[in-house]
Amino acid sequence: MDSLGRVSFVTAAANSRGEAIQHRIEVIMIKKRFALFAAIVTTVSVVIAAPVSAGASLEGPMVSQFNLGFGNPDTPCPQFTWAGTVDLVGETYGMAFIPTGAAQTGEAFHFEETWLVYETWDFGFTDGVLTTCDGDAVLTGSDSGVVSPNGKAHANGEVASATAPFDESLIGRQARWSGVVSNVVEFAGTFRVN
Length: 194
Hints:
about 50% strand, alpha+beta, eight-stranded antiparallel β-barrel
């Protein structure tokens, strides 16, 4: 009986030791999986929340419509000359322009303006008049440029302010746009921040 008891005890101890080792292995695997999961979640969170920073150039197509109500105090949005959209870093933003100076030189039209990029916006036109101009500007700047008689237009300036999703490090960087005005009231071109 001693012999059987010892064998039973040794077998039980071996099973117990084996279960303990198996349990430790399972705990280690769970910890490794959790660490991997935490690393993935952290990486995804940083990528999703990462603002557009100084290292990246912003460039995308822009389209705008001229506000036929510009300068008319009897219209809802008389301060804006142009309003439309710009696509940057895979997102569509609203974009509007407020003139700060202009001059006709020969056949060319020279201008100065403030531009605003909106994360959320509501621009509505009725019969060419901008009737809704609500939005939250996340990127602003100023520029000066020219429209030639053939409708080609371009402007150069710089970024004045930037808030999320854009990074403050964009402030002071060169901003420019170019494109073509067609039918006097439509514009299509490219916007870029270097």
